[in-house]
């Protein structure tokens, strides 16, 4: 801590837990905190409401997970072939937009149009963890150095364009990925902005919001339309995702991958961020020893606990419950809309038949 400010006594207790770890777990903790051990311990404490015993267990479980799954080397284990990486980027819509006014990285997520159907689940998990680790080991140190202070959290903008009941079949993959974040990257996201949500989503959200944990309720903001005006309070125009710059388009069939030039579309594998991440991974893989390089071929089969196995309620569990309640309503609304259009078409056709 700077100056004469006293260190949080709960952090001191957590530091004693770290001191008693074996060498392997200590090294993994050093890799994880990236020079900010106290801030890292505070995150785990916050995730467990300042309960030292629960936070210590969460941290130790996280470190064991990192060691067991070789997470410290995930940025040296490229997904091969490159075509598979590109296919994942086109079906797991995640992109880096820039930084908010406080320096926090801003990520866009295409929730409604992430199909997760171009690769095995373990490859999607592998890719997601690589983006997490790149954020924490490259983006965060760079912006922290530039700002002269630690910037350890991010903002996420969730685009609901195209959200349908069919998304329920993809819930398993997205839940696995989100569970990784809940258990091993806690308190890394300050705010989830939901944009381009169907009207029925906003209506249902008001109904289910009281059932959520207070922590989740504080973090989630459902914005009107593409959210541009509200988002500009947090970030400059250049850091807005493309779907908030040019506005939502009518019809769920429009693909988010079709926005503008691929190099300027944050979801595209040709966007600078994804090109740089893959280049970084390839370069790191060349520095591995031959034995490690051979072990790095193929997917990482990362073990992730299910929601039922988790000790504490999580943001993931909240979101799953929300989607379980909202998706059927979305489908009902869509069916009603389709029926209305069919009725209008039938009436029109009857008019044509009468006139002939």
Automatic annotation (TrEMBL):
SMART domains: CRAL_TRIO_N, SEC14. InterPro entries: CRAL-TRIO_dom (IPR001251), CRAL-TRIO_dom_sf (IPR036865), CRAL/TRIO_N_dom (IPR011074), CRAL/TRIO_N_dom_sf (IPR036273). This is CRAL-TRIO domain-containing protein. Residues 295-314 are annotated as: Disordered. Residues 84-241 form the CRAL-TRIO domain. Gene3D superfamilies: CRAL-TRIO lipid binding domain (3.40.525.10). PROSITE patterns: CRAL_TRIO. CDD domains: SEC14 (cd00170).
């Amino acid at each position: 801590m700077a100056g004469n400010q006293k260190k949080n006594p709960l952090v001191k207790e957590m530091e004693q837990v770290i001191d008693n770890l074996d060498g392997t777990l200590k090294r993994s903790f050093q890799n994880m905190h990236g020079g900010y051990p106290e801030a890292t311990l505070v995150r785990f404490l916050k995730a467990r409401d300042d309960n030292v015993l629960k936070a210590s267990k969460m941290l130790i479980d996280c470190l064991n997970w990192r060691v067991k799954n070789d997470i410290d080397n995930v940025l040296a284990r490229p997904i091969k072939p490159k075509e598979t990486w590109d296919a994942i980027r086109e079906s797991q819509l995640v992109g880096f937009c820039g930084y908010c006014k406080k320096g926090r990285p801003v990520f866009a997520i295409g929730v409604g149009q992430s199909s997760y159907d171009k690769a095995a689940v373990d490859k999607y998990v592998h890719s997601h963890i690589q983006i997490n680790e790149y954020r924490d080991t490259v983006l965060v140190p760079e912006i922290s150095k530039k700002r002269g202070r630690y910037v350890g959290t991010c903002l996420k903008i969730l685009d609901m364009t195209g959200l349908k009941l069919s998304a329920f079949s993809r819930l398993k993959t997205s839940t696995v990925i989100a569970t990784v974040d809940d258990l091993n990257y806690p308190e890394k996201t300050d705010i989830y902005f939901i944009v381009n949500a169907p009207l029925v989503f906003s209506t249902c959200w008001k109904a289910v919001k009281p059932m959520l944990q207070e922590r989740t309720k504080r973090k989630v903001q459902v914005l009107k339309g593409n959210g541009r005006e509200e988002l500009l309070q947090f970030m400059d125009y250049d850091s807005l995702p493309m779907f908030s710059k040019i506005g939502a388009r009518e019809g769920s069939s429009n693909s988010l991958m079709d926005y503008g030039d691929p190099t300027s579309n944050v979801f595209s594998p040709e966007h600078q961020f994804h090109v740089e991440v893959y280049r970084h991974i390839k370069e790191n893989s060349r520095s591995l020893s031959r034995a490690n390089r051979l072990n790095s071929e193929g997917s990482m089969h990362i073990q992730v606990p299910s929601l039922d196995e988790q000790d504490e309620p999580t943001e993931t569990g909240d979101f799953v419950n929300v989607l379980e309640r909202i998706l059927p309503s979305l489908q009902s609304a869509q069916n009603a809309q389709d029926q209305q259009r069919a009725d209008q078409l039938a009436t029109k056709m009857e008019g044509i038949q009468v006139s002939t």
